User: Which sequence fits this backbone?
């Protein structure tokens, strides 16, 4: 799932004019990233954002996340991919990041597929965060049906830049989250991640899309060097960086993803 903080709206609206040009990103499959698509479960599919017009008002665009969930977004519709990324499943299977007994934080988790994945991989707790109020009950309903302890795996409503958990987290996961934010928010994103993780904590970033788009975002083009420029000054060190094999990407995202693991200093 993809969410953007309310802080983004206020930050973007300091620009003149208060408008973002929302283009259409066309991956290799030819599917428009910014148009609502329906996908087959459980194979998953290209996640997309709610439809948005060029020159749309930013505040109005942000409201469309809530509108999508409030309208009863179903699994496989629009940006709901029906499952965690195969790249994340592979990373956990290989033990690249040990999550057993750890507390995991997943902002922008949508229906909660990723918190469930982390719990089933042995995490002590897996907490998701969603900005859209209507997304939270949908996520918790899904989680409750997955035979997991819902006191240890759940989703809350909150702003990534303001929400805090006093205990801190051992592992964080960021996918289709940074790329949904306006570029003016990137430094704050890195600082916020540093604040959410405990010293020595690991941040998993599934970097997408790494291919420059012809049109402006979202999703905004991001790449590994940009993440280094953001996270290293914020107090992280890079541990691993890998290109995601085509067979480990959601359909339509082949060749557009990399995984990176960072350690919070």
Assistant:
């Amino acid at each position: 799932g993809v969410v953007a903080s309310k802080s983004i709206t206020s930050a973007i609206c300091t620009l003149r004019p208060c408008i973002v040009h929302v283009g259409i990103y066309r991956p290799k499959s030819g599917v428009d990233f910014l148009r609502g698509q329906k996908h087959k479960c459980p194979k998953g599919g290209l996640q997309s954002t709610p439809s948005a017009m060029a020159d749309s008002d930013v505040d109005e665009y942000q409201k469309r996340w809530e509108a999508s969930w409030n309208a009863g977004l179903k699994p496989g519709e629009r940006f709901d991919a029906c499952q965690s990324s195969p790249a994340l499943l592979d990373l956990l299977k290989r033990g690249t990041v040990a999550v057993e007994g750890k507390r995991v934080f997943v902002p922008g988790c949508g229906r909660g597929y990723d918190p469930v994945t982390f719990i089933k991989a042995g995490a002590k707790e897996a907490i998701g965060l969603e900005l859209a109020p209507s997304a939270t009950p949908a996520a918790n309903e899904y989680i409750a049906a997955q035979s997991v302890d819902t006191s240890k795996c759940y989703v809350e409503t909150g702003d990534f830049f303001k929400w805090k958990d006093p205990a801190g987290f051992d592992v964080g996961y960021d996918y289709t989250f940074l790329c949904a934010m306006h570029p003016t928010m990137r430094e704050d994103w890195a600082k916020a991640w540093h604040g959410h993780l405990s010293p020595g904590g690991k941040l998993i970033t599934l970097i997408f899309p790494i291919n420059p788009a012809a049109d402006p975002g979202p999703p905004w083009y991001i790449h590994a060097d940009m993440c280094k420029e953001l996270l290293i000054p914020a107090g992280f060190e890079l541990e691993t960086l890998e290109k995601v094999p085509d067979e480990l990407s959601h359909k339509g995202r082949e060749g557009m993803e990399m995984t990176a693991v960072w350690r919070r200093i």
